Amino acid sequence: MAWRRDLKVRLTLRIVGVAAFCFAAAAAYVLFEADRSMRSRLDRMTEVAAKDLALQHGKRAWIKDPAPFFPDLEVLATGVLAPGLCLGYRDAGGAILQSFCSGSQDDDPPALFAFVYTALFDPGRESARSVVFQGRTVGAAIAWGVPLALTAQAWHEVAHLLAIMILTLLLLCVLVYAALARALRPTQAIHAGLERIAANDLSARLPAFDLAELSPIRDVFNHLAENLQASLAERTALTRRLIDLQEDERRHLARELHDEFGQNLTAIRALAMAARETAARDCPALLPECGGIARITADMMESLRGALFRLRPPDVEELGLAASLEGLIAGWNGRSRDRTRFELRLEGNPDALPPAFGTSLYRIAQEALTNAAKHAAATRVTLRLSVDAAGEIQLTVDDDGGAGDNVPAGGAGMGLLGMRERVATLGGRMSFETTARSGSVLRVAIPFDPVRAA
User: What is the domain extent for residue 328?
Assistant: First the structure.
């Protein structure tokens, strides 16, 4: 249960448990003290009674016409007896000649309490004091308690203490929980700061706390956030520089392939055509070989044009992002030969985005379509680009390929890691999901400032 993991509840329960233990100890002390007081009272009663009975023996011996009744404890019992106590006289033969008890109007205590109290204190145990006359023991004054009455008195005291304890513990629960909730309120700020850090908001900082125990946490958190923010800024700058270098290298490689490899292929094709004309005049048997060279050269030139297009796509700044993406989709539809249908859906005004956004979005879409075509075995691939006027760019590429084949792999192009790096440099987020029924979905969300874009 969630409440079991709540620190406030745990601390409150522990404090209340300690308080309950203290109350239980206080109740036990009260019971033991009451029992000790009762024992002391019984001892005093027997001591006074023994002296009085000794005097009564003396009167009988000294007075020629003594009172016919002995012992006489009525007057004494009236003065010393308390509720639940008894006073009596036992002769030398062990017979109780006289006894007086004071009753109690208390209700019967609970059976469990009576059992425990009787086992611990033995309330019916008697106190005895010998009655000595002329050096001879003539009997004993005895006092004892009525077990049920003394147990009821003890329960009456404990019940009052128990009621006070319950009310005090309930009030203590409320006050302690409120105090802990107020003391632990800074943990909510810590939790909110950690959530912002987890959401890549490295500008999160914790305020100063009144508690000395939380101040070091605040200092460490802010220091860590500052270091992460600086590290992320450096990483973003480095990634942006690497992407620029990659684009420069791609342009250089495309230029080299076009100028060197393309011209050589064109020359080979021209030589093949010339050789075919010569073979047609002098050696017809060589015509198939010449035709094969021409076809291979044409295929190589077609592959070269595709590689050049991937290395150096149309200038997004000149054509616009929308036209560049339309050309990209048209190229994939032309190369797929109806095995996979590529679709483009645009919302908003993609051409209003800054050049850095346009180039990166084009590269992300290019790599996502390449992954979907190579690894998803899909029959339909849809590219959606939405530019929200509120300030968010959403790019989605979904396909209906099989779940086992649609994991992007780092092949040609920059791969999934490269897409993540491009998205990170723009301050966005990217997710990739696969399902057994609906294929895979790549989602990219990038915030931007519409005012600056305008």
Answer: 317-454
